[in-house]
Amino acid sequence: MTKITDILSLTLPELREALTDLGEKPFRAAQIYDWLHKKRVRSFSEMTNISAQLREKLSERFAFEHITPIKKFESERDGTVKLLYELPDKNHVETVLMRYEHGDSLCVSTQAGCRMGCRFCASTIAGFKRNLEPNEILGQLYETEYATGRKVSSIVLMGIGEPLDNFDNVVRFLNILSSPEGTNMSLRHVSLSTCGLVDRIYDLMKLDLGLTLSISLHSPYDEKRSELMPINRKYRIPELMKACRDYFDATGRRISFEYALIDGENDSQKDAEALCALTGGMPSHINIIPVNSIKERGYRSDRASAQRFCRLLNSLGANATVRRTLGADINAACGQLRREYEDTEA
Ligand code: SAH
Question: Which residue's alpha carbon is nearest to atom 1 within ligand 1?
């Protein structure tokens, strides 16, 4: 990884400070920020209202690197586009653009690989490589809009990696994403999905960013959840649920729970009842996802089972829906494309 900060990873106040350090007028920062985040140029030389001398100084001080789409798959069924990006150090991550009635939503990765070890997840199998830098998370938005000509109206941090395990870079990404002088996306249009790093949920709560928190729950029982998700050995369900209630009380944002349904693992009547009891005390929504089988694991489910389990939850009074399956024809589930690519290239 490059040692100099990438200029795309700087907030506007930081850019101002950097320019003052370089002996330049602070207003130059706004001009440069506009080139980067509104006009989205790819090189210093395109910043035509900035002197050649300053552009030279900027290029000495900052990196300005790009992530490159090396594979692109478009669903013929539903407009889903999946991109595999190569990072400057040749790591890979994937990004998925999904079409919904209310607009296009982008699922971004926050780490190359993941160290959380969830049993059903493809992203974790080859282990953890590194955190993504803010410019690499932001780059997934900029490059995908460029590559597809589509405009993203919401973002979900649900791609490869655990966003709260890369806390500082993710928060910096969110600050840049929402800055009025840049892309100006309201963080109400952003969801962050976590396997449940409780300490970090509190850190996020204190920042009061206004985003939606999604919790990957997958079982209402500690024993089963620990088997599926090793993080549960550190942060148990009661502690996690308390953090969710506190998050809701502090921010007023309804919590979303993800539940990947797996045949014979977490799909019984008892599971449904326990899940309702757990989430019943606070405004929440449960998203049921039939588990996507990955070749390394034997977990299975299907849409009919997910619908059955969802009806059961609804009959028990829970606010639950089955997640629409998008991009089924292009293997759009998290981590699968990168895994296949790195498998065949290795
Ligand atoms: N690390 C974060 C976000 C990335 S995963 C998290 O754990 O929430 C995004 C979502 O996909 C999570 O809910 C995750 O549990 C789920 N997921 C991972 N692998 C899956 C699979 N094979 N089938 C269905 N959902 C899966």
Answer: 162
Q: Which atom of ligand 1 is nearest to the CA of 289?
A: 24
* Adjacency order of strands within the sheet including 212-216: 68-74, 81-86, 92-100, 103-107, 152-157, 190-194, 212-216, 255-261, 284-290, 320-322
Q: Output the pLDDT for position 281.
A: 83
pTM to 2 decimals? 0.95
| Segment 123-180, tens digit of pLDDT | 888 889 999 999 999 999 999 999 999 999 999 999 999 999 999 999 999 999 999 9
Q: What is the pLDDT of residue 337?
A: 61
The closest residue, in CA terms, to atom 10 on ligand 1 is 158
334 is a catalytic site residue: yes
Phi and psi at 297, nearest 5°, equal -130, 155
> How far does residue 50's CA lie from ligand 1's centre (Å)?
44
Domains within the chain, CATH numbers bracketed = 7-61 (1.10.150.530), 68-345 (3.20.20.70)
E runs forming strands in the chain:
68-74, 81-86, 92-100, 103-107, 111-113, 128-131, 152-157, 190-194, 212-216, 255-261, 284-290, 320-322
